[in-house]
Design brief:
It is a single chain. 34% of the residues lie in helices and 0% in strands. The protein is mostly helical. The chain has a domain of 60 residues: 434 Repressor (Amino-terminal Domain).
Length: 122
């Protein structure tokens, strides 16, 4: 099932135009009121399914494209975050922890005996 980025203010305005509470709209959309609030406030983790957007189209009576975010819209000047500094690639220790699922090995694990000075205890 594919998911889309919502246009939260349109969801909130459409619900308010129908004079519905978040609880009423969520019940009609078959989702929790908290999830609807997350969609309406553009929370990062709120990515509704295409099926849910079509239920909202039926409920609110507006176009599908109005309910989803148009990423092609240029951002306002000054609203883009500063680019992150380029981090040098680190060599992975073959005896170290496995890389993360995203392929990056940016964890600093405990020091290995081979990396520290060995101290003999008398």
């Amino acid at each position: 099932m594919s998911h889309v980025r919502p246009n939260g203010p349109v969801w909130r305005h459409s619900r308010a135009r129908l004079d519905m509470s978040a609880e009423q709209a969520a019940a009609r959309l078959r989702i929790s009121p908290q999830y609807l609030r997350n969609i309406e406030s553009n929370q990062q983790r709120a990515t509704p399914s295409v099926r849910l957007v079509y239920r909202a189209v039926d409920l609110y009576g507006i176009q599908f494209n109005d309910l989803i975010s148009n990423d092609a819209t240029p951002p306002e000047p000054g609203s883009q975050p500063e680019p992150e500094a380029e981090q040098p690639e680190r060599q992975r220790d073959p005896n170290g922890p496995p890389p993360r699922r995203n392929g990056r090995d940016d964890r600093l694990g405990p020091a290995r005996a081979s990396e520290t000075q060995m101290v003999r205890v008398p």
